[in-house]
């Protein structure tokens, strides 16, 4: 029969063996990289799930903080209104009692003394009104300061939540990119594997005679 060296040059046979050997190594490398990609994707999916859970917890805390701020604001306003109302009633009662006492003693009191006492009473009432007004203003300022602190805390928590959401988005994009790279590499390996199979079949179909 006709020998292989007569049908095909030796260099061609060497090149063919080299290509087959190279393709076999690529298949082994493909399997190894596929395994690494699977592990990496599982790790990224786990990280993404953990971040999403943490993001949900932060969102719940923010909603809870918002409710607390609203309740505190309402409570502060109620206390503020109650104090003003109580102090107003107290001043009115004190003034009324003093005027009644003056009426009872008017017959035994020097008119000038009564005028002086009434003036002192009016001055005292004016002083108490000013003091109550200042106290109410101070309480209102304290309430505003407390609300500002709570709002700043909420803004800080909101920024932290946004940063987590941004990180989740980036990790999601990275996961999608990794999946695309995996599928692209899988396609490339499949093409090379098909070429290897075709060349192997071609080699097996040759009638080699020595």
UniProtKB/TrEMBL annotation:
Keywords: Coiled coil. Residues 34-68, 115-209 form a coiled coil. The keyword Coiled coil applies. This is Uncharacterized protein. It comes from Meganyctiphanes norvegica.
